[in-house]
Design goal:
With 189 residues, the chain is mainly beta. The protein has helices at 67-75, 163-172, and strands at residues 3-8, 16-19, 44-50, 57-58, 64-66, 81-89, 96-97, 100-105, 108-109, 118-121, 132-136, 149-152, 155-162, 178-182. The protein contains 2 helices and 14 strands. β12 (149-152) and β13 form a beta hairpin. The two termini are 17 Å apart.
Length: 189
Amino acid sequence: MNYYALMCKLTDNTAILTHGLNLVSPFNNWLDPVPWSIPVPEPLQIEVRSTGKMLPYYDNPIPVMTADLLETIRAAGVDNIKDYEVVINNPFDGSTYNEYRAINIIGAIKAIDEDLSESDELDESGGGSGIKFYDEIILDESKIHGALLFRLAEQLSYVVIAECIKDAILSKGNPEDFYFKPLFEESDD
């Protein structure tokens, strides 16, 4: 099965979001792939920082997606997303968006094939910090065990989706609103 990093596709014509308020720990870290042990303060407040077309999915500062997109992903078999009420306010025109949900993806999988992926270590002095920056990521499918959506443990900012989830998203949404970065080795056909 092929896997992709799901990313929002920001352009000059899309709206950009920012936090509406300063969130206290642990709610300022949406990359942590574990459920919170305390209630999330709902609704979360997010603001439009620059105007433009609203996208169905944003991965930063808080990952949010429309309720319709979340429903599509769940209908395709994903069951490891906790979602929370969010209100997105546009201070430029006074509009409010209530159809979005903040999402916390539960679960991270250490799945990078270190032999096939290209990376650089942060500390090049030979001390070996263990922190890597990946230029190209290839996944080892034997470590994924059929998961359809997860965070990549070695690179938590990556939301990884199986091809069937990509297909479900594209069947309901505009392909121009998403960026799917391949995380698999392509054959030299």
